[in-house]
Structures
1.
Amino acid sequence: MIDDFAKPKQRRQSVPVRVGNVTVGGDAPIVVQSMTNTDTADADATVAQVAALARAGSEIVRITVDRPEAAAQVPRIRERLDRIGIDVPLVGDFHYIGHKLLADYPDCASALEKYRINPGNVGFKAKRDTQFSQIIDIALKHDKPVRIGVNWGSLDQELLTKLMDDNAASENPVSASAVMREAIIQSGLLSAERAEALGMGRDKIILSAKVSQVQDLIAVYADLASRCDYALHLGLTEAGMGTKGIVSSAASMGILLQQGIGDTIRVSLTPEPGGDRTREVQVAQELLQVMGFRAFVPIVAACPGCGRTTSTVFQELAGDIQGHIRDSMPKWREQYPGVENLNVAVMGCIVNGPGESKHADIGISLPGTGETPSAPVFVDGEKVATLRGESIADEFKQMVLDYIERRYGQGSSSSTTDAA
Ligand code: SF4
C-alpha cells in the first residue's frame, strides 16, 4: 500500500517579512504576486492594471520605477488605488538608478512597500557598494523591506568572472553552468550579507535567483534554500508565451514547492499581443491550488472527451461554469466564505461520469453517444436528480448556484465549517 507517497515536504523555515499588509515567509500562506507592464509614468494605465491584477487575486504588485517621471507618479498611483479600495502593496522595481530615484522622490520611497534591488546592475565597479548602501539606507529610513533579486540575464559580471577564474585554476574544475549557478547564488547571498551589515534585519530581506531554464531553476533554488533562511521569492524568468510559459513555470515551481521551497511566487508569462495580464495571476493561483497549498476559486473537473461523446455540451458547460465562477469570485469571496474549496465535476459519459461526479461536491454525468439522453446529478456523493432535454446545462448551473447558497451562504450551518 502506498501511503503519504506524494506529500509535500514540510515547508522550509524562513524568516517572515512584512510587505505592507501581507506576510511573506514563516508560516504565512505562499503569496501570489505579479508585475505590471504599463509605463508607470502613465498613472491611468498603471492604476487600471494594478487594480485588475489585485482583483484577479494578486496579493502584491510590482511596478517598474525606471525614471523620474515614473517615480513622480508612484505616490499618485498609491492614492488613487486607495481611493478605489485597492490596498494591494506596491513594490518598486529598480535598476541602475534606484538609489537616485528613491533619494530624489521620498514620497515614492514612502508609497512603495518594498524595493527590488538587482545586485547585477545596482552600480558598477567602485559605485556598486555606495549605491547599494544608499538604497539600503533609504529602506531603513522608511522601514521598508527589500527583495534582492538576482537575474541571470543581468548577473554581476565581476563576480562571475572571478568564480570562472577560480574554477579554471582549481584542481577539480566544475562545468561552466555550475559556476554560473554558484555566481547567481553568491550574488544574492553576498548582497543580503551586505544589507545586514548595514543594519537591515533578516525580517526585511527577501531573496530571489531567477533563471530561465527549468532544471537550472530547480538546482539554484534547492541550493539557495539550503544555504540561508531568508524568505524566497520563486519565479522562472522569461518563462515565455502561452502553454510553454505555463508548463515551464508549473514544472519548475511545482517541484520546488513540493520540496517546501518558496514563500511567494510570480509566473512570468509573456502575454499574447493584446492579451490579459491577469493570466499570470490565474496560473499562479491554479498552481498553488492544484498542488493543495491554497484554495482560491472552486475547481471544475471535466473529462477531456473522447469518441464516446460527440456532443460539445459538456465542454461548453464546464467552460461556462468555470468562467461564471471566476467572474463571480470577487463577490462570492465576501458572500460565500469557504466557496473556494468547492469541487464541481462535469463529465462526458457514463464510463467515468458517475464515479467522478460522486467524488465532487456536485457533479453531472452527461449522456455520451448512444446513451439514454439523461444526465444524473450527484450532490455530496448521492444521486439527487436526473436532468433531461434541452435545458440540462441551465438547470445544472442553477443547481450549482443553489448548492453554493445552501452550503456557503451566510447563515448556513456550514458557511464557517466544512460541510458534510
Ligand atoms: S468520461 Fe466518457 S466521454 Fe469523458 S473521456 Fe471518459 S470515456 Fe470519454
Note: The two ends are 28 Å apart (CA to CA).
2.
Amino acid sequence: MQLSEQPGGRRAAPGPGGFDPEVVRKDFPVFEHPVHEDKRLVYLDSAATAQKPRAVIERVVRFYETENANAHRGIYELGERATKAYEDARETCARFVNAATPRSIVFTRGTTESINLVRYAWGRANVHEGDEILVTEMEHHSNLVPWQMLCGETGATLRHLPIDERGLLRTDLLDGLVTERTRLVCVSHMSNVLGTINPVREVADAAHAVGALVLVDAAQSAPHLGVDVAALDCDFLAFSAHKLCGPTGAGVLYGRESVLEDMPPFHGGGEMIREVWSDRATYNEIPYRFEAGTMNIAQVVGMAAAIDYITALGLDAIRAHERELTAYALDAVASTGAEIYGPPTAEQRGGVVAFNLPEVHPHDLATIVDEDGVCIRAGHHCAQPLMRRLGVPATARASMYLYNTRDDVDALVASLEQAKGWFS
Ligand SMILES: Cc1ncc(COP(=O)(O)O)c(C=O)c1O
C-alpha cells in the first residue's frame, strides 16, 4: 500500500478505502500514555473535544518559538511573520468551508462566541418586536440561549422546529413555521446528542424564500463531514477548532460577505477601528471590524494546522471510516440492551451514539467505565430541551473520530456488560 506523508511528519494511508485508524492513532501522543496506571486509553468523547495530533502541537510550539509577536501591529520582521501566519490561517479556513473570500472568515474563541457575535452585532440591528427566530428542537444551548436572550431584549418570538420519533427534523413543518415574520433560522448541521445530520440546504431554501437568514451550527459537522457554505447556501456558519483536532480558544464565524459588510461591530477595542476621536470612532473593514483586541493568534495558527491535517487525510475518508464504525457501534451498544437515541442508521447520523442502560444512571455508568480507561460523556450534553423531548434527564454518549477503532467500541461494550453486572 502506498502511504502519503502527513503534515505531522508521520505517514497515514490515503483514500477512503485505505484509511487506517491504527496508523492515524500514532499521530496522537495522548494515546501513548495509559490511564489508571496501566489501562489503554479508550477515548470516546470527541464530540466534547478532540485529541490533538503532533502536527498541531508542533505548529503551536513553532509559532511561539519562531513567529511570536502580536498580529497586525509590529512592522518589524517578527511581527510580519506573526501577521502572515495569522492571515494564512484565514485563507486556510476560507478554503476549508469553501468561502468565496477570506473576508468572510472572522476569528473567534469558538462556536459559542461566533453565535453570540451574530446575536449582538447582527441581531440587535436587525431583529425587532414582532419578528420571529426559528430554532430546532435539537439545538445545543449555544445555539438556543443566545436567541432566547435576543428575543427577550427585542420582543421578538422564538419558534421551534420539532423532531420526529427517530430524531429527524420535521422539515414538513417548515412551511408553517417559516413566515414573513421570520428573520433568522438557526440549525445545527449535526446534532451533538442524536448525531442526526440535518438537511441544512432545505432549511436554507425555506428561509431564503421569505427573506430570512440562516445560521448553521457546524460545531459537530465541520470536524466530521466537512462543510461547504456555498452548497449549504448559509449566511452564517460557526465552528470550533478544538473539536477538529485544533487548540481550544479558537473558532470561526463565516459570514456572507454582503451581510458582514452591513453589520456593526461586536466588541469595541484595539484594531477593530479605523479612526478614533475622544467621543466617537469609525470602524475597520471586515473581518477586522469583528476582531477587537489581541486575538488567540497561536491557537488560530494551530487551528489551520488542524484543518491541514484532517483535509490531508480526507474528509470523505474520515466520514467513511466513521460511518462504518458508527454502524458497528450502534449494533454493539444495542446488544447490551441499551436504549439508543437518534436515527436508526449510520447513513443518517455522524459518529455520536447517545444511550441509556435500563436502571443505570448515566453518571454512574461513565464513572464505572472510566475504571477500564473508557471515556464517555454523561449528562444533558448542553441540550436540556432535547432531553425533555426524549423524556430523560440525561444520557450516556460515546462519540467517535478518526483515531477510534473497533477495539475501542469492543472495550466500551465489555465495560458496559460489566457495569450491568454491578446493578443486577
Ligand atoms: C452542536 C454544538 N454546538 C455548539 C457547541 C459549543 O461549542 P464550543 O463550546 O466550542 O463553543 C457544541 C459543543 O459541544 C456543540 O456540540
Note: The mean pLDDT is 95.
